[in-house]
Amino acid sequence: MSTSQATWFGQPRGLTILFLTEMWEKFSFFGMRTLLVYYMTKQLLIGQEKASLIYGLYAACAYLTPIAGGYIADRWLGTRRAVIAGGAIMSLGHFMMASESMFLPALATIALGNGLFLPNLPSQIHGLYCDRDPRRGPAYNLYYAGINLGAFFAPLICGTLGEVYGWHYGFGAAGIGMLLGLLIYVGGARYLPPDTPRVAAETSNGRSGDVTRQMILLVSIALVVVVFRGAYEQLGNTFAIWADQGVDRRIAAGLTIPMTWFQSLNPMYVFLLTPVLVIWWTRAGRRGRDPSPLVKMAMGAALVGLAYLMLALLLSVQVGVVSWMWAVLFVFLLTAGELLILPTGLALFGQLAPRRLAATVMALWFLGSFGGNLLAGVLGSLWTSLGATAFFMLMGAVAGLAAVLLLVIKQRVTEIPESPSLEFPQARRDSVTGV
C-alpha cells in the first residue's frame, strides 16, 4: 500500500499508530510528573528547594538519555526494537514508584527507558511520506497536538487518583498507560516504515559542507531551546507550587478546583489551538506572508515571556491569593507561545536529519529539553528566596532572551530549506513498504 492512501485526517495510517502510542506514553509521563512535586513535598517531606532540584534533574536526565538511545538505535538496535525496549523499561519504572524506598531508582529507570523511546518514535514520521509529499509538514503539528490528548487526561486521571485516593494509585495508572501504548505500537507495526540500515551513513561528494552548516544551525537552535525551556518548564515545577499556595481555587461554596487539574490546561489548549494555527499559517502561506520557522519560534518565546510578565505585574499590585482565572489565562498565553516554538523546532529537526541518523539527530532536539529542564530546576530553586513576583519577572526575562537569540540566528541564516537537504541520495524512498 502506498503512502498516498490516507485513512486519518488525510494522513497515512502509520501516523495514527505513532500518535496513539505517543498519546499513551505522554499520559504515563505527565501523569507521573503531575504528582512528582506534590509527592516529594507532601508525602516524602522533602523541602521545596531540594524537591525542585530533584524534579529538574529527573526531567533533565529524561531528555539527556535520548542522545545515547538514538545512537544505539541508529547503529545497533533499530528503531522499532528501541521503542519497544524503552517502553517496557519505562513501565517498570512507573510501577516501581509504588514503593517509597524505590523512589530514586524508579526515576532513574524511567529516564533510561525514555532514552530509547523518545527519539525513535517521532523519527519514524518522515519515513511515512514521499520526498515531496506536502502532508509532511502538517503531520508534525497533528502529531504534536494529538499526543497532548494523553497529557490532558493525565492530570485528570492520575492526578485525581493520587490526590484523592493515594499517590501510588496515580503512579500505577501511569504505568498502565505506558503498557497500553506499547500494545498499540506492536499491533500497528505493519503500518510503520521499515528500519533504515543500522550503519552510519557516509556523506557523498560535495555534501559534507552542507551537513556541517545544517548541523551548526540545529545545534544553535537546540542551545536556544535550552534557554527557552528554563522558563517554560516551570509549568510543572514552580507554577504547580503557586497554583497550590497562591491561587484561590474556589469556584463556589464547597467546590474547589484540584491543584493538579491546572496541569491539564496546557495539553487541552494545545489540542484546541493547533487547528486554528494550522489554518492561520496555511492561509498566510498562500498569500506569501508565512513567517520563517525561526521568526515563528521567536514569536513563541516572546509570548511566553509576556505571560510571565503579566503574572509579575498582577502580583505587584495585588496582595494575597489571586483568582484561578489568572492561572487559566497564563496557561493559555504560555501554550500559544509553545505552539509557535516547539512543534516548529521539532519539524525542523525531523526534516533536516539524515535518514540513517534520524534518531540521533532527533535526540539533539531533546538535548535542548535536557538542558532546559536542568536549567529550570536550578532556576526553580530560587522560588522561595526571590518570591513569586520577582521570580515570574525573571522567567519573563529568560524567555525574552530566547526570543532575541532566535532572531540573531535568523539574521545569520539566509534560507532554511523546506525539504530535508541533509538526506542522502541512497536513503531516499518514494514509498514505504507496508503502509
Question: What are the key terms here?
Answer:
435 residues; mainly alpha; Growth Hormone, Chain: A; 70% helix; disordered C terminus
Q: What does this protein look like?
A:
The protein is mainly α. It has one domain (about 15-195, about 210-420): MFS general substrate transporter like domains (Growth Hormone, Chain: A, Up-down Bundle). It has 14 helices and four strands. It has helices at about 15-45, 50-75, 80-95, 105-115, 135-165, 165-185, 210-230, 240-245, 265-285, 295-315, 325-350, 360-380, 385, 390-410; strands at about 245-250, 250, 255, 320-325. Strands 1-4 form a two-stranded parallel sheet. Strands 2-3 form a two-stranded antiparallel ribbon. It is globular.
- CATH homology-level superfamily: MFS general substrate transporter like domains
Identify the CATH architecture: Up-down Bundle
Approximate helicity band: over 70%
Poorly predicted ranges: 199-206, 418-435
Largest sheet: 2 strands, parallel
